[in-house]
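Good morning,

Both structures are done.
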Amino acid sequence: MKLAIISPGFVPVPSVKGGAVEQLIEYIVTANELYHKYDIDLYTVDDPLLNNFTYKYTNLIKVPSKSERNLYSRIFVKSKKIMGKLLNLSNDYDYTSTVFLKYYKKNYYDAVLVENNMDIYGNLLSVVTKEKLYFHLHNDVDCGDPSKTKEKTEKIINTSKNILVVSQFLKKKLCKMGATNVTVVPNAIISKNFKQNSLEKVTEIRSKYGIRKNDFVFTFVGRLAPEKGIDKLISAIKRLNYVPNIKCLIVGKNFFEDKSGNRYISYLKNISQDVQSKLIFTGYIPNNKLNDIYSISNCVVIPSQWEEVFGVVALEAMEMKCPVIASYSGGLPEVLSKKCALFVKRDKNS
């Protein structure tokens, strides 16, 4: 069977630059190398690191790199001022869905799996004829604003062969919108990537990050975005400022070094001023190295402020035997066992 997998279009697949959805797509491709159920064309944004990957049964179709997309976006913005409403693209996200369509092989596939990008799916409808269309949804359909996505979601419900979702929470939501073609496919991790480290290795890693033996480490893994709730975690750390041996490990970007002017990042900088000594930034950590982080963590915190429809970090933490503090959010109660997790309501006291 000829299968097209259309990645979301923000970072490359394989997941050389991170991304939860991108990592899961990589799992599909890797498994297909073992079982060869499909001949796959994987549509992904280009990156020089992708040259290190070759597959027997998957062909990487690489769309222009980030720098080229940014050049296009700058040209587009200037053009739009002149052309006005004659152009219907509004930002880089719209460009992504358009450029993927340009590379798409028409009338070639038996099935097309669109990963979590409703705009790409909508554009494909204009060229797809015989192909069976599938949509893989990884996040909440309204993202806090139903007016933005209701029409797009209904279009997917009415035109797709099947919608794959990651949790019962998400399936129930789609069914309330009239969907009958929904299948739950829970997310997964590769267990062998999450093995316990030796005591000697743990001591070595703690030393690398300046963490003492008796320090209690809370760990956050995720994007620095309002919906991920890292501000709630930092506010909680501030309340524990009187406790000398607490550290907060932040896996990802160091927001103190961010010069983007992003309001949320600026807010994080502001509320963190008096607890900087408790914050430790790791930078980007590849998925197959995350066990090093979990092994030095005493507690993983998932302070999501939106409906977290699954939460791969929750699976990873449990595999590494880390207790979890999580928001009572979306599909997290499906994933986390109450034997290892405390749930916090998302209210004014969260």
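Second structure follows.
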Amino acid sequence: MKNKLIIVLALILLSSLAVFSQDKVKTITLTQTPGKFEGREVKLKPGSYQFEVVNKGVDHEVAFFLQKESDKENKEFSSALKDSGLPKLLKNGESAKTGVVELSKGKYVYSCPLNPTPHYTIIVE
């Protein structure tokens, strides 16, 4: 009886850990170089993300701006993306992470208003 109880408790613990790991925040690294972000369109699943932005070779400070594609003409962060900015402007060689952002299905755009870069797309499916 004791062994069955231990097995049941172990299964409960393992299933709890599996649920916890699904909620884990994922980090997406985006590197800015003069006039652009390295890489391409990003495809993600709905979930919790932090964006780590790296200034690689830009001779002035850079920033990061993420918003829903439908809002890309606005200069305000939507409330769902309020933590998507960087805590500071980044000088050449520096990096920083945004706050945790919950992304749901849809299209988002990111750019740097200081570099300046084109709008790049994030698709959440």
